[in-house]
Write a structure and sequence with these properties.
- This is Six-hairpin glycosidase.
- It comes from Sporolactobacillus mangiferae.
- It is a single chain.
- The protein is an alpha+beta fold.
- The protein has 16 helices and 31 strands.
- The chain has 4 domains: 204 residues, Distorted Sandwich (Beta-galactosidase, Chain A, domain 5), CATH 2.70.98; 76 residues, Immunoglobulins (Immunoglobulin-like, Sandwich), CATH 2.60.40; 121 residues, no CATH class; 90 residues, no CATH class.
- The chain is 29% helix and 23% strand.
- The longest helix has 21 residues.
Length: 646
């Protein structure tokens, strides 16, 4: 790169308080009317830093518009005597939003959930303060085109590996591939603005002249469901000039009314359906995925687990275990390292089979599941004390409260499969042990409160149901007392802390009808919704922000945004049955999207991936891939089958 010039800003603005360093690079951006004085530039970072491995010169100009918005213009010039081509991630601009996790109060007032859409000419960023309190910061592209984004993550921010999960990293926006002849320039320009909430942001981009917004009820479809979406062109109110819409290079027919194109296509194959929308030389895109019917997908996945992921070595402690499967090596994998071991999240494979077999009997799968349950009771669970262990050999080098509800779910599903009361006894034992170990102050994932009470009552075990309800009530009362003051967990603050709180409070309201639970639920649902965006891509649309799972659970061990990740399903469960509770269907209508969003982790042959690392690159390592390991993703399919498998 030849040089970068950052122009001095003039004049001042009533809505933007900007600080720059000695080179005029922006190091702080605040809203003067914000009572929390949040800095929307990540700590110790420089907004607008240029990533470039080419001999380009760059001129950066910032100015305020008449609407009191901040406009940034980046002009790239080829000042050499030779043509310059940009490809891949060689050219980028840093936009370091403060998207990191700390204690809850810092997160809620000083950090944001950053929803990025690099959709060509119609690109945006919707940055939502984690506590939901306006103002929020938006970015909308005015000139140029963005093709994707990358992440830079400093693994040594805190000096401890276990803390890397709390820092999403710095975002790098990549312009489209360029070909600049000598002395040619290319301009990228965007506008920064404040907005009130998601609805306000939608309105702003929807009304933006020539901006293309794509909406759909389902970016992932099953079976013979049609691919259906609308593409709205901002500022168009008549039916004259029409856009062009292509799929795989072929024109797609559509209905055109008042600036909105409606596309309905019956799929003729499974797989990706990528659309390009062109309006007056502006291009945008949308990505859909067509999957087999849920019943077919689930049967293939269960069969794959039984045939490829169960250990059959009778001389090993692992005999009967469902293990990680390496799709590259075509073999099972085990490591005592927590997220690679024979317990923990991998219990989801057993829970999925137990649920599936309740409606689809299969002798081969049943035999496999019986061997697996024997393994669980022998290696991971003490039927006398109710203790749940971290790994084979009843090993508890790293005791973990998360493990208890997952074993409990397995036992509950086994009872419904076999009507054997021993499983209910074991379930109750595990719950008692969980609370004895401190579970009443822990934001566990997956405790089936509402379901278990009903199962115990229907089984005639009313006294035990009462005891379980007392324990659940004490737990949920603690969650209500905490409100949004969430305690730090394995990750300091995340969607899988807020979602369980919402689920358990909802369950207690349904079980007791007590009004204070209903009021507490609404607070949790609002915060939870901030983790989800509406970008027109099946990877991103309503997928919860998560950015560490590929590192801990994947073969590649790459930190970076995992879109989708299967725990997005937790938000779907939280929104389930909320219409009557909150007096609106604004959350419940999202349930299908949230539960379906995880299904792209499963392949048509029954194999699976634990995480899709979505960015173009992470720390200069190529990304945008499905991790080769099938590990813990089956909880996503389990919950889809359970709550939306009808």
């Amino acid at each position: 790169m030849q040089d970068v010039t950052y122009r001095e800003m003039k004049p001042r603005s009533a809505l933007f308080d900007v600080e720059t360093d000695e080179t005029n690079r922006m190091i702080a951006l605040r809203n003067p009317r914000d009572p929390h004085q949040m800095n929307w530039v990540n700590q110790d970072k420089q907004w607008g830093k240029i990533k470039c491995g080419l001999n380009l010169s760059v001129d950066v100009k910032r100015e305020y518009s008449r609407r009191d918005t901040l406009i940034e213009t980046y002009t790239f010039k080829n000042a050499t005597k030779f043509d310059i081509y940009t490809v891949g991630t060689r050219l980028g601009i840093y936009t370091p939003f403060p998207d990191y996790y700390s204690d809850a109060q810092t997160c809620l007032t000083q950090c944001c959930n950053t929803h990025i859409w690099c959709g060509g000419d119609s690109s945006y960023i919707m940055a939502l303060r984690m506590g939901g309190e306006a103002p929020h910061l938006g970015l909308i592209l005015r000139k140029g085109s963005l093709k994707g984004y990358s992440i830079d993550r400093n693994y040594t921010v805190t000096g401890r590996e276990e803390n890397v999960s709390n820092h999403r990293g710095d975002f790098i926006l990549h312009p489209e591939n360029l070909h600049l002849r000598p002395n040619e320039t290319y301009t990228l320009q965007w506008e920064l603005f404040w907005f009130k909430d998601k609805q306000d942001f939608r309105r702003i981009i929807h009304e933006q002249s020539d901006f293309i917004t794509v909406s759909s009820r389902a970016f992932l479809t099953l079976g013979d469901e049609p691919v259906r979406f609308t593409a709205h062109i901002g500022g168009v109110t008549e039916n004259g000039e029409r856009p062009e819409i292509y799929r795989d290079g072929k024109l797609v027919p559509f209905d055109w009314q008042n600036g909105t194109a409606t596309v309905v296509e019956s799929p003729n194959h499974t797989g990706e359906y990528n659309y390009e929308i062109i309006w007056r030389n502006k291009r945008s895109r949308a990505a859909f995925l067509v999957m087999p019917q849920l019943e077919t997908l689930t049967e293939r996945r269960c069969r794959f687990i039984v045939e490829h992921q169960q250990c059959h070595d009778q001389q090993s402690h692992l005999y009967g275990a469902y293990l990680i499967y390496d799709n590259e090596e075509k073999q099972q994998y085990y490591g005592h390292l927590n997220d690679h071991n024979g317990g923990r999240e991998r219990v989801g494979m057993g829970a999925l089979l137990a649920l599936y077999l309740q409606h689809h009997p299969n002798s081969k799968m049943q035999k496999s599941l019986d061997i697996y349950v024997d393994y669980v009771v022998r290696e991971l669970f003490d039927p006398e004390s109710g203790t749940v262990y971290n790994d084979v050999g009843r090993n508890n080098d790293d005791p973990r409260l998360y493990n208890y509800p997952w074993i409990g779910i397995l036992f509950l599903e086994m009872y419904k499969l076999k009507n054997d009361h021993q499983f209910l006894t074991w379930y109750a034992k595990s719950v008692e042990a969980f609370y004895k170990a401190g579970g009443g102050r822990f934001y566990a994932i997956g405790m089936p409160m509402y379901e278990s009470i009903n199962v115990f009552r229907e089984a005639g075990r009313v006294k035990e149901a009462g005891r379980l309800l007392d324990l659940y009530k004490q737990h949920v009362d603690y969650l209500v007392k905490c409100g949004k003051n969430y305690p730090q967990s394995e990750v300091d603050y995340e969607q899988a802390i807020v979602a369980p709180a919402a689920i358990y409070i909802r369950d207690l309201y349904c079980l007791t009808g007590e009004e204070h639970y209903r009021k507490a639920l609404d607070e949790q649902l609002k915060v939870l919704d901030l983790f989800h965006g509406f970008q027109p891509d099946y990877h991103l649309n309503e997928s919860a922000i998560r950015h560490w799972d590929g590192y801990w659970f994947g073969k590649r061990r790459v930190l970076g945004d995992t879109f989708p990740h299967y725990w997005t399903a937790l938000s779907g469960i939280a929104y389930f049955r909320t219409e009557d509770i909150v007096g609106s269907d604004k959350y419940a209508r999202k349930v299908k999207k949230l539960l379906r969003s995880v299904l792209s982790l499963f392949k048509e042959n029954g194999s699976a991936s634990c995480a899709t690392v979505y960015p173009m690159s992470v720390n200069d390592r190529p990304a945008h891939f499905d991790d080769p390991w099938a590990n813990d993703q089956d909880w996503g399919l389990y919950y889809m089958l359970k709550y939306d498998g009808r």
